[in-house]
From TrEMBL:
One GO CC term, this protein: membrane
Places the protein is found: Membrane
Database matches in SUPFAM superfamilies: MFS general substrate transporter
Protein name according to UniProt: MFS transporter
Keyword tags: Membrane, Transmembrane, Transmembrane helix
Signal peptide as annotated in the record: none
Membrane-topology descriptor: Multi-pass membrane protein
Family under the similarity heading: Belongs to the major facilitator superfamily. TCR/Tet family.
Recorded superkingdom: Bacteria
InterPro entries: MFS, MFS_dom, MFS_sugar_transport-like, MFS_trans_sf, Sugar_transporter_CS, Tet-R_TetA/multi-R_MdtG-like
């Protein structure tokens, strides 16, 4: 992208395509469809990553289970991060009677589910890795276009509600997925099959229930590989709002994931609980966080649409999350962790509810690249999920295993993210 001098006014954005915006009954069907799809998708992610895959890898070589699982997840993270923006860009160029996003949602979910079920049938680390990476690529190729539906089919005034529904679905799905996977951990084939069938069925049903406008008549821009690759760099000097939004999302997830990843070890080594006590308390923490996330997400998304503002919700939700991380520093007790869980759930729920709506409103003016641009913003979540555990391990090494440094780092990251939203000009 060419640079634009700061003293030259930017051209006004073209009128937004409203041909696919839904209203009335269709809007409610789409809202609940999105909630259910993201519920099932996050149930799969959390159930497989937290329960099924670790059990399967541990059964291969119990002594090397941690290292082997790290290998699988590291490789997967690389491919997942690359897939989302590429699939989004390709969906922007897709021309079919089913539209631009629907073919990706349906076909990629079917391919991913077949690969996921294949994971349950193999018995070596390399075959598990290959099939799980293939499943992750397919599911990320589906998730990007599915997320883009918010920008495609909802008017800006309704995107806070849509974002709230998606956030509620993700929150509930992540919790339920771990519970279901725990019940099926002794029957890995059945466990993988349940999640694979659920995602495939929901995605295919989504496409049929929420028919997309055909895209056959749309003329794609001329394609060149160098131009296609260059399009993934969005110059923050030319599109500063996009850059600030990316930075804000990146930093808040760096802080949040750094604590969540080591939560069980925090309870054991910082709060000084036994193994059995820690396992009980972490379940209670998850339940408290879940309730607050669900309530905060739905309410914040609705209120954001009612008042027509995004930035105050994102700002104050970040401040609330930073305040939550102060509690365990002052009160390193079980009660302190419960209070932390409630406050962080309140803040994180509000953030996830409004964040997606905000992201759809800071996209560059080229409305034909919505899928690609939202995919790039998704990497602001994927990258912290991969590197924040490494950062946390490094901090623990420097501090001699003092877990308070994780809360201090989280406060710094999350609090900083609240200020990155302030310079955004295109969204109130």
């Amino acid at each position: 992208m060419s640079d634009i001098p700061m003293d030259v006014p930017l051209p006004s954005a073209p009128a937004e395509d409203t041909s696919q915006h839904v209203a009335g009954r269709r809007r409610w069907v789409l809202l609940w469809s999105l909630l259910i799809n993201f519920f099932v998708l996050l149930a799969l992610y959390n159930g497989v990553i937290s329960v099924l895959l670790p059990n399967q890898v541990a059964a291969l070589d119990p002594a090397a289970k941690a290292a082997n699982l790290a290998i699988v997840m590291s490789i997967t993270s690389i491919f997942s991060t690359l897939t989302t923006p590429i699939a989004g860009a390709l969906s922007d160029r897709t021309r079919s009677r089913w539209g631009r996003r629907s073919p990706w949602i349906a076909l990629a979910s079917l391919i991913g589910s077949m690969c996921l079920f294949g994971v349950s049938l193999v018995t070596s680390l390399w075959s598990i890795t290959v099939l799980w990476v293939m499943a992750a690529i397919a599911y990320n190729a589906m998730q990007g276009p599915l997320s883009t539906v918010v920008a495609d089919r909802f008017a800006p005034a309704n995107r806070g509600t849509a974002s709230g529904f998606i956030g509620a679905g993700m929150t509930a799905g992540g919790t339920v997925g771990i519970i279901v996977a725990g019940q099926l951990a002794s029957q890995l084939v059945l466990g993988y099959l349940v999640f694979a069938l659920a995602v495939a069925a929901c995605c295919v049903a989504f496409v049929f229930l929420n028919r997309e406008v055909p895209s056959e008549h749309l003329k794609p821009a001329p394609f060149s590989l160098p131009g296609f690759l260059r399009s993934f760099w969005i110059d923050p000097r030319q599109y500063p709002d996009f850059g600030w939004a990316f930075l804000g999302r990146f930093t808040i997830y760096m802080g949040y994931q750094g604590v969540v990843t080591y939560q069980l070890y925090i309870l054991r080594d910082y709060i000084k609980l036994s193994v059995d006590q820690a396992n009980v308390v972490i379940g209670n923490i998850s339940a408290i966080t879940f309730v607050m996330l669900l309530f905060s997400g739905l309410v914040s998304g609705f209120l954001s649409d009612r008042v027509g503002r995004r930035k105050p919700f994102v700002f104050f939700s970040s401040v609330i999350m930073a305040a939550a991380c102060v509690v365990p520093l002052i009160t390193p007790t079980v009660e302190g962790m419960y209070l932390y869980a409630g406050i962080v759930g309140l803040g994180y729920g509000a953030f996830t509810a409004v964040d997606m709506a905000l992201m759809t409103q800071v996209l560059p003016r080229d409305t034909g690249s919505t899928g690609k641009d939202l995919g790039i913003l998704t990497t602001a979540i994927n990258i912290p999920q991969a590197i924040s555990p490494v950062m946390s391990a490094w901090l623990l090494g420097l501090s001699g295993g003092d877990y308070s440094v994780l809360f201090i780092a989280a406060i710094l990251f999350v609090f900083a993210s609240s200020f990155f939203v302030l310079p955004i000009r295109s969204v109130r």
